[in-house]
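Exercise 7.
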Amino acid sequence: MFYRSLILSFALLLLIGGCSENKAPDPPIARAELTARLYETLKFKRYSESLVIIDKLLALDSDDADLMEMRDRIIGNIATVKIQHYVDENRLEDGLKYIRSERRKFPVMPQLRLLEEELKNLIVLHKAAQTLAAADTIPALTAALDFIVPLAAKYPAAKQLHNDIKQRKADLEKMRSDAAQAVEKAAANKPASQPAPAVKKP
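Solution. The predicted structure, written as tokens, is:
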């Protein structure tokens, strides 16, 4: 009886001491609460909060592959939305700076690498379109063709732009050829100059 009372007293002291020190809840309880909050933030698309909660859950279990995959997917989706804003505002270089900064933070994340590649290709297309609009010589159009060829087979927009540049180059070459032929024809049809009549001497 004495030992039972001693054990109960000791247990009560531990319980009181634990409450007074405001210890963190046991990991299973914390994980359940954090998981519920995580799905709530995902439901309402509060992705920045989701990432904070995922980091806390990973602190409890750093080997949770599903959580790591979810984190990478959220980071990739946030980056995709931001890049789309940059594209819509025609701020491609700013978008490239942003995605490169994200890649420095998450260097092995494949979705960020793909976003960077797509954005760089879009910048190439944009420059090629500007070149096409400004080009008024065959060498300039030839340079634009060389610029766009690597992307023509991969992107429909690049292929269309490639075809537009080829057509414009062909039109310019034909226009110059027609102009040269017109000059030659006009020169061939020009009547020969008549010699001046001789002046009779008195």
